Amino acid sequence: MKRSSINNNSEKVFRLASTVAAVLAALMVVLIIIFMLLPSLKALVKIPLRELFTTRWNPEGYSKSSWGILPFLAGSLWTTIIALAISIPISFLAAIFSTQFLPATFRPITDLFFSILAGIPSVIMGFLALTAIAPLLAKTFNLPSGLTMLNGGITLAIMVLPTMVSVLTDSFQKIPQIYKEGALALGASKWQAAIGVLFQFVKPAFISSILLSFGRAIGETMAVIMAVGNVAMIPTSPLQPGETMTGALAIEMPEAVANSLHYNALFLIGFILLIIALLVNYLSGLITSKVRVEIQ
């Protein structure tokens, strides 16, 4: 009887602590949104929407300042899409190979490799992009500089690859062996079983990994700054330089005068980036709930 009372008290304490933690987490998100929104509204009051969605960004213009944020949106989308186009097929094939073909004794080695890759600081990846990938791209495509959207996309692909592989590998390993054995018994090869049968069970995780990687890639700062050239223009080719939203914030915020229009406009860029991240997280939960396959 006494032990039951202690267990009930412990459960009540745990529930209270969990509730407080959940409320604090939600409160922090709300406070962050408010913190970003207030300066953004000040910028929107003074900058017309039609001027925001133009191609020229020149906050310190002598005659007239320009506040077009389209170059930063385009730069972020270029690098993110390139990164996903590279990392999605590689991560999918790596997960299938690791779980369906690689002997179990070697799997800890691959897990360790991707763990180390995930732990490399972004500034080191930026040095790799600046000193190794950029010269290679410049030589391959006969460019004056390898600091391009393609360079940023390749760098981001390397950075998001461990996350995607880890999510997919865990999902493949959780599928009951009977489904794979059943597919093989019907005459399917290992590749056919993995793609035609097992993939149906990891589809929610596959979509989640893509959306999580999208959020990680579009929010990356240091490595991208060192890779893309930081030119406020809309690239028409992956072999051109550009600038991302995170790059504009990191480069210009230290020089912006507090509470100036330039300062508030940078907050507006950050708020747009925050909204994109929140939408990606929401879509991740919404889409995966619709394609989830129950394993019985």
Please outline what is shown here.
By secondary structure, the protein is mainly alpha-helical. The chain has helices spanning 2-46, 49-52, 70-101, 107-118, 122-141, 149-173, 177-185, 190-219, 222-225, 245-252, 261-291; strands at 57-58, 66-67.
Describe the structure.
The chain is an all-alpha fold and 296 residues long. It folds into two domains: 2-46; 66-291, MetI-like (MetI-like fold, Orthogonal Bundle), CATH 1.10.3720. It is 74% helix and 1% strand. The protein has helices at 2-46, 49-52, 70-101, 107-118, 122-141, 149-173, 177-185, 190-219, 222-225, 245-252, 261-291; strands at 57-58, 66-67. It has a two-stranded antiparallel ribbon with strand order 1-2. α5 packs across α6 (149-173). The longest helix is centred in the N-terminal third of the chain and has 45 residues, at 2-46. The model has no long low-confidence stretch (mean pLDDT 87).
Secondary-structure blueprint:
Blueprint: H1 2-46, H2 49-52, E1 57-58, E2 66-67, H3 70-101, H4 107-118, H5 122-141, H6 149-173, H7 177-185, H8 190-219, H9 222-225, H10 245-252, H11 261-291
Antiparallel strand pairs: 1-2
Helix pairs in contact: 1-11, 3-6, 3-8, 3-10, 4-6, 5-6, 6-8, 7-8, 8-11, 10-11
Our Rg estimate from Cα atoms comes to 24 Å
Structural class: mainly alpha
Chain-averaged pLDDT: 87
CATH superfamily of the largest domain: MetI-like
Low-confidence runs of at least 5 consecutive residues? none
- Spatial strand sequence of the major β-sheet: 1-2
CATH 2nd-level architecture of the largest domain: Orthogonal Bundle
Number of helices: 11
Number of strands: 2
Overall geometric form: globular
**Into how many domains do the coordinates divide?**
2
Q: At the third CATH level, what is the topology name of the largest domain?
A: MetI-like fold
